[in-house]
Write a structure and sequence with these properties.
It is a single chain. The protein has 154 residues and is mainly beta. It contains two helices and nine strands; from the N terminus they run αβββββββββα. About 3% of the residues have low confidence.
Length: 154
């Protein structure tokens, strides 16, 4: 059985709990670090959250991710990229759409890991805690270094 549930769970988390996730106004990747992996492509359904997700190939090594959630539907653009040995997915609202004057298309960062079974993929959104302690734990690429505000917000 292909374990795509974890990728779907990540996208369900991203859709339903954006306030708890780290968002950025700019992309987290640079063009040389972009990669593409066919294993992310597919259709999934998470019965627990009643979410369906379709991940397709899009323009220039990107993914088009369409989701249907009980409270909303939408489309995201994803860019898979490598920083050292780690793999991340930068998710942002589909480009070219006008969402209105007060809506800023923010980027969300997700870490992707592959299991020992080549069909197993784990996706986890990066939290404020991860960004707060990552520089102390390991060298972090410039695109992933957090900036702290006056009240220690990241």
């Amino acid at each position: 059985m292909i374990n795509r549930f974890r990728v779907l769970a990540l996208i369900a988390i991203a859709i339903s709990t954006q306030a708890c996730l780290v968002l950025g106004l700019d992309r987290f990747y640079d063009e040389p670090s972009i990669t593409f992996d066919e294993r992310l492509l597919g259709n999934w359904r998470n019965a627990d959250d009643n979410v369906t997700v379709t991940v397709e190939r899009s323009d220039w090594r990107s993914y088009r991710i369409q989701y249907v959630h009980p409270t909303e539907t939408g489309a995201l653009t994803g860019y898979l990229f490598k920083q050292g040995s780690a793999i991340y997915l930068d998710l942002v609202a589909v480009r070219g759409k006008d969402f209105g004057s007060f809506v800023v298309p923010a980027h969300m960062l997700v870490r992707i890991t592959y299991g020992t079974d080549p069909r197993e993929i784990t996706a986890a959104p990066l939290s404020f805690d991860w960004f707060a302690k990552a520089p102390a734990d390991q060298p972090v690429a410039a695109s992933l270094r957090p900036l702290k505000g006056g009240r220690d917000q990241i």
